[in-house]
Amino acid sequence: MFGIALLILAGAVLVLFAMLGQLAAREGVIPSQGSGIRLLEEAHVGRVPVAWPTGLAGFGDGPLRIVLVLSTACSSCRTVAGQLADEADVADFGVAISTADAAAGREFVAANGLARLPHHVDEGGDWVSGEFGVAVSPAALVFRDGMLISALAFTDLAKLRSTVSPTRQRV
Questions:
Q1: What is the distance between the alpha carbons of residues 166 and 81, in angstroms, rounded to a whole number?
Q2: Does 91 share its domain with 19?
Q3: Residue of 124, 27, 38 whose CA lies nearest to 73
Q4: How many Å apart are CA 162 and CA 32, to the nearest integer?
Q5: Domain of life of the organism in this record (predicted)?
Q6: Tens-digit pLDDT profile for the chain (171 aa)?
Q7: Do 66 and 84 share a structural domain?
Q8: Are 92 and 168 spatial neighbours (Cβ–Cβ below 8 Å)?
Q9: From the CA atom positions of the chain, what is the Rg in Å?
Q10: Strand 139-144 relative to strand 93-99: parallel, antiparallel, unpaired?
C-alpha cells in the first residue's frame, strides 16, 4: 500500500513540474533571464506614437531609448523606482507614470527621486495603453528612432539592462 501511494505522489510531482514548464513557455519568459523578464506580446511593436508627451519629447530621436512604465498602485514599481534612483547612467531612460490621479503621479515622481529623468504622468494610463497596447507595469518600452521595437515586463532593472544591452551595442 505504501509503495502505491509513493508512486502516485511521484507521478503527481512530475505532472506539476511539467505544468510549470508549460506555463513558463506560454508566458514568454526569456530563458536566459530566468523568470524576471517576459515579452509583452500584446504590445504594438513597430508603432511610432502619434505624439510624444512633453516630458518625453526627446524620445522620438536617438538610436535606442527606453521608457519605463511604472504605476503608483504597484509595489514592484516602487522597487524599480528605487533601483532607478540609485542608477548613475540613466541617459537612455525615461519614465511614464501610470496613475488614476495626476497629483498622485507627481507625488510618486518626487518621492522616488525620478524628477531628474524625462518623465510623463500618464493619467489613466491613456498614452501607454492607447499608443502601445501595454496595460502592465512595471514594463519597459524599447524604442529605436521613435519606433517601438520591444516591450518587456520586468521587476529588476539590472536584468533589464543585461537584456537590452546587446541591442544597444548593435545600434
A1: 23
A2: no
A3: 124
A4: 10
A5: Bacteria
A6: 766 755 565 444 433 444 434 334 333 334 444 447 999 999 999 999 999 999 998 888 878 999 999 999 999 999 999 999 888 888 889 999 999 999 999 999 999 999 999 999 999 999 999 999 999 999 999 999 999 999 999 999 999 988 887 544 444
A7: yes
A8: yes
A9: 19
A10: unpaired
Residue 70 burial class via C-beta count within 10 angstroms: exposed 0-12, middle 13-18, buried 19 and up: buried
For the range 99-106, what are the long-range contacts, defined as Cβ-Cβ under 8 Å and sequence gap of 24 or more?
99/71, 99/72, 99/73, 99/123, 99/124, 99/125, 100/72, 100/73, 100/124, 101/72, 104/72, 105/72
Domains identified in the chain, total number: 2
Domain range enclosing 23: 1-32
The total of other beta-carbon atoms located within 10 Å of residue 170's CB is 8
- The helix or strand, by DSSP H or E, that contains position 139, with its residue range, turns out to be strand 139-144
Q: List residues bridging with 70 in a β-sheet.
A: 97
pTM of the model: 0.77
